[in-house]
Structure formats: C-alpha cells, structure tokens
Amino acid sequence: MRRNPVLQVNLRSAGKKLFAAGAAVAISVAFIVAGMLMVDSFNRGLTQQIEAEAAGSDLIIDTAMAMTWDEDTEDYLRDDVPLAEEIDELDGVDVADAVSGAYLSDVEEDGSATIGLPVTEQSETREGEISAGREAQAQDEVVVSSAAAEGQGIELGTTLTAQEFVYEEGAAEDAEPTVIEEDYTVVGVMDTQGSPRGFVTPEGMERVPAGGSPVEIRVKLSPEGEATEVQEQIRGLIDEAVAGLESTRAADLGSLEVRTIEEIVETRMAEQTGSGDALGYFALGFGGISVFVSALVISNTFQVLVASRQRTLALLRAVGATSAQLKRATLMEGAVLGLLGGAAGVVLGTTAALGFSAIARATFAPDLPLAGPTLLATVVGLGLGLLVTVFSALLPALKAGRVSPMAALRPAGLGAAMPKISILRVSIGLVLTLGGFGAVLAAALLGGPEGSLPVPAPLLGVAGAALGFSGVLVLARIAVPGLVAQGGRLLARIPGLRVNARLAGQNARQVPGRTTATASALLVGVTLVGTMMVGASTAQTVLYDELAERYPVEASVAAVGEDLQADLTESDLVESFTSAQGTSATLTGELGSAEGRVVLVDEETFAGVARVGGLAPAPGQALVAGQLNGEVYSGSGAELELMPYGTASSGAEEQAITVEASIASWLPGDTVLITAESLPEEALAEEGSPWTFSDAQGITLIRVAEGVSPDESYGLASLMEDHSEQFNDEGAVMRASYSQSIDMVLLIVLVLLGASVLVAVIGVSNTLSLSVLERRREAALLRAVGMNRRSVGQMITIEALLLAGVALLIGTALGAFLGWAGVASMVAREDWSVVLEMPWLRIAGLWAVTLLAAGLAAMLPARALSKVEPAAGLSED
C-alpha cells in the first residue's frame, strides 16, 4: 500500500463510505461460514456417537437379517448365534458376542405403554461407565443410557415391562389378546452417547416373553489378532454357512458385512448425514443468494464512488498517474474491502454457529459438539469475500481507468438523462428472459410421468428460472428507471408531494445505472421471498385439494349420542360434525363375508363437514370402508351384497341389495354408506322391515378445525375412543402434518432469505448515502430557490420508496409465476391440477416490511442532504 499512492488516496477519500458494502460482504460470508461450521459440528457429533456405540469392539457384524421363520416348527431360527460361536474359536479373537435386542415399556395402571426403550444384552465388548447406580446383575434388572435418563425421565427404581400379546388360535376378530408381561427394575445409568437405550443381562434377554431378536455380533480381538485377517476368516465362515441353506435364508445370511470401527463410522455417516447435507445445502444455497445480492451492492457502491471521484481521478491522471494505476488501485481497494469484510464475516459466522450449537446443546441435542472455527471455513470465508469484491469492482475499475485528464478542467456532472437504448442489451435480455421463462413454463405444463421433456421437470424449471431472471436483470436497466419516474409522476398527484415526488422520479431516471443496481438488489430478495410464499401457498392448496379428495371427511366415529355431541361441541379440535343412523348387516363380496353396519346418508348428511361436494353415493352404489378392501371385496367397482339382520320370516334375504363398492378410506371399519334410493321400495315404508335404522348403529362425521397442529390432532383419537373403538382420524392427522410441514419449511426459508433482503436494504442505504456526494449542488440549488430542509429530505425518502415499490411490483409478479410453475413442475400426477394461490396477507406483509425498511434506509442520507447549506453547496465544483 505504501508503494501505491493512488490506493491511499482512494481509501482516505472513501472513509466510512465503504462501511455498508463491507457489511454486505460480512453478512454473506457469515451466512456460509455459519452453515459450514454447523455441518462440521453435526458430523463430529454423529461420528462421536457412532464411535461411542462401537467402543470396546474391533469388528461388528449387523445381524438384523440373520433370522428366519421356520414354517415346520412355527418358530424363528437364528443364524447369528452359531456364527458367533464359530467366530469365538478363531485365532486372534478374544470375545465374540451375538447381541440380541428387545423393547421395554413403561406400563401405566390403565394398561397403556408410554415408553418404548430398545434394550440389548450387556457385553464385555461394549464400553461405558456407570454414572449412577450399578450394573445389571440379576435377570430382572436393567441399566439405561444417560440419554434415556435425561430425555425420557427414567430414574433408578423405575419399573419397565416387556410385553407380548398372544391371540388364541381360532379366536374371534374382536377377542382380546392375552398379555404376557415381565418386569425389569432400573438399577443403573450408563454414561454413553447416542439414542436412548438399555442393557440387560443375557439371562434377562432370555426372560423377555417374545424373545430377543438379532442385533449384531461384536468381536473383540486378542492382542495378537489382526483385523484384516480376522475379517477374511469370518467372511469364509459366512460363505460356508450359506452353502447349506435355502435361497432366501442364504441371501440374508450372505448379505452380512464384517466391518471395522472405521468402516462402521464411514458407512453410518454416509447413511445418516442426510440432514447434515441438507443443512449445508440450505446454507450454501441461500448464502449464495446473499453473495449475489452483495455483489450487486458492492458493484453499485464502487460505480458511485468512481463517479464521485471523477475530478480526483482526472487530477491524478493529469499529474502522471496511468490508466493501469487507477484500475489497480480500484481493484486493490475492493480486495482490502473483501479481506476486511470476509474477516468480519468469519468472526460473525463463527460466533453465530457457536451460539446456535450452544442453544442446541441446552435444548434438544445435549451431545452436539460446540461449533468452532475450522481452517476450511476460514479460508472459504476470506477467499469468498476477496473474490466477490474484486469481481464486483472489476467494471468500476475499468471505468476508473477511462477517466480523461481533461475531466479535471470541467465540473463533474451527471450523465445523460436518457441514454441511448442498447440494441445488444435488449436482444440479450429478451433472449434470456423469453427462453428462460419459456423453459419454466414448459416444465410446469409438460412435466409429470407422461411428460415429453428430455430432463427432469424441476431441473429444467430451476435452470430456466435462473436464465429468465438473468434476462430480467439485463432488461432492468431499460425498464426500471422509467418505472421509477412514472411512479414519481403518480405520487406527484398527491397534495403536498407534487414537486418532491416528481423530482425524486427524475433523479432516479437521470442515473439509470445506479437506480437499476439498487433496485436489482432488492428485486432479487423480493422475487425469492415472493416465490417461496406463493409456492408454499399453492403447494398447500394442491395438497389440501388432494387430501380433500382422499379424505373428504377428516374424522369419523361409529357412535351417535348426546355425550359424544357434548364432547365434540366443547372440543377446540372440532369445527363441525353431523350424525347418520345405521343398521347391522351382513356384507358379502367376492372374497368373503363380514358383519358390519349400513348407514343411510344423503347430501345433507355431508353439508358442513365434507371438504368436497357430491359425496352421497348414487343409487346402486355405496361408499365402503377401506378396511374391507381385500377382506370382503377387491377394489372399487366390486359388487357387494348387503343383507340386513333378520330371519327368513322377516324377509331379510328377500330385501338384500347389491351395490357397487367405492373405497372410502376415511370411514371407520366395517361401515358402508348408502342412500335411500338404493333400498327396496318397501324397505322404509313397511313396519317390521329388517332395514331398521337407529342411532345405535350410526356414525358421526367430523370436520377438524383450521390450524390444528399434528400433536393436537392426535387428541381427536382420545376423544373418539371414549365413545367407540371404531373410529378413523387419518384425514385429520394427515392434514395437520402437511400444514405444519409447509409452514415450517416456509418459516425456515423466509428467515434464510431475510439475509439477502437485509443485504439489499443495506445497499439502498449505501447507494443513497453515496449519491449525496453527487447531489450536494442540486440540493443547494433547490434550497436556494426556496425548498426547505424537510422537502429535500423527503425527496430522498420518496426516491427510496419508489425504488422499493418498483422492485416489489416486478418481484411479486415474478414470484407469482415462478411459485406456481415450481409447484406445477414438481407435481408428477396428471389428476392433480395446480392452481395459482396468492397469499395476499403474506404478500401485504412483505410489501409493508420492504417499504418500511427502504424508508428507514433513507433516513440518514435524507438527513445528510437536507443539511446542505445553499452557499456551501453551490461553491463546490
């Protein structure tokens, strides 16, 4: 720097003007660094957990498949036990244990089980210190892991129970099973990482009523044993055992893998790091968006700086500075900014990752290692900051090198108000826009299983969206300044804004480069947020429509009565309900017969509870519970005979009807819905008819309230099972689960995209602040002709709001199109129609927040320009 006086002049003149651009770099770098460090923390935690679970063993064989059912003895055959015995006799092996597993539960007084704890046998091939109590010694004792003690609240002295439900051969379908139970007492807590689990003695595993199932063979080598040699010997034993077995059993046993601890860690990491990779993809993806926005902000900042330094640069040229020196100085200024911003981003990202990991440890992931700085994250952060700023400063550097020494002899002014339209720019912009968005439209309309696209529709849509949006940014230089000026003219019609609004619009039009760059930074964030909002809302509508088709009634229970009505009325989970009477009947189809109920319904029955209309079956048709599919009938369209309970003298056989079955997965078991038109004419008219409908055999249909969470939806089952064992709440659970998933994804994405919007707002403030340098004479002249300070500041604020308004207008339109197209390209079923759904309330919130942020960003620049005194401003060149 000492040898580059031009750089020293640039840095002194810039001063605090580069602070906002540096902040944009820091935020973007912090985003990516934090994501990388959180992924590193996640992976280290997973590695430690796997190593802790395998500690004490040198080789482990996963034997979950080493068990088969023997039809002759009607018992399970285990291949892991004899294999472990043979391994134990190999040279170099100290111990080989065939570890079995089972489940223990915490059984309440009413018989309900609240804890399902996996347990395995204690083994000398497993390491772990007892942190409380002692090891299990008797067959009715169990030791639990620290995760089970902390996460599930299991204490010393707690009784856990192994259960087996046995049904007697030939018992009726509604017969209660015999429950065989064995109790185990918690005598110790083992301090070990991993998921909650327990450990019992080998005798304790044999005591489990249902018996233990194979889990793994853990092998501990003797001091002279070599892992590679023993692996090969065990592989030979497996091959020998496979040779004498039938095909299925041989395939299961032959698939066993003998792995070292290092191989186990590598394999399980590959299987379990999906969430970590997803976290990394999110961080890199949205961090990349922030970097892109930062590049726009930085480029705009340097362009304004170069414009404001025109006389200074010209004077430097006049006293001997070369064009190359000016270019190098501008690029080096960007490099200094990038290194400082990158360093700040590394510190900020590391601090954020440390905070996130600390919160995770204190709440839901106590074993997660604290995130800390890594060489890779530091190098990536610094390198990214340097690369982005140098690249963004490249075009301004070229402009700086073109400054003529003659520019020092004339005042620096603004460029032409209306520069010539570049035919090349228009052509490139149109090609990119039309081609890119054409690809998006093709992905939306032609995707699906029968589509004729050469590549997957989502991939084509993403690529097309990137190209199309790039074209929009190219054309923005032509469209945005004019739109801002037009917006100024519209605002000028408001009393009190006639002069200020028109001037603000014209100012934006006079410097199209600065205006476009500022609006483009906002446009990126607004388009992405709008796309996610519209996409989530559209996807939610598509899923809800599909759920409405599959589950038009979200819950149903085979009960009718005042007590049930009172409970449903008081429940916050229920929006509405209705009841229909039924009768007992024999249901006979191509596959057999079953006893069930036939319920009489009409369109009024479904009014207010069904999500779709026209649900009542037509004459000769019936809605039949999905439970009966495969037991009584086979698929929709099958014929089903319904015969009411009665005797020959009552005419039950004569009044049997045949209907065409349609599967209704939302009905309680053994239920059939028909309309009165399907019954014989005399069925309801004659007294003593076997078709007697009453509340005793009726059902109640329920519509779930909006906004019910998945956890809350499970409470509906508890409410219904108090009145009948036959109920169906699948639709309610599915709807609540989809709603929460979409809302959660949307929340995460919006928080991540908020970083890019924040960077864009910083860019607005920075650009307006730097533009004050160019407009001091303009402000002084306006003050000299009578404009007061308030009006001058108001002009800057209006300009910021106009820029934000144009970005919101274009971004919302693009977001609506891309959001709809994104969902349409991912829907792979022809019977799903994707209709655009605009979340107007969320969109209004986006507009309000963006306009407010733009207004706040303009406060300091507006105040600075309003303080320009007429005499001082007019005296400047």
Automatic annotation (TrEMBL):
Keywords: Cell membrane, Membrane, Transmembrane, Transmembrane helix. Pfam families: FtsX. It comes from the Bacteria. The chain crosses the membrane at residues 18-39, 278-307, 335-359, 379-401, 422-447, 459-480, 517-536, 744-773, 794-820, 840-860. It is found in: Cell membrane. It is a multi-pass membrane protein. Residues 286-405, 751-870 form the ABC3 transporter permease C-terminal domain. The keyword Lyase does not apply. Belongs to the ABC-4 integral membrane protein family. This is ABC transport system permease protein.
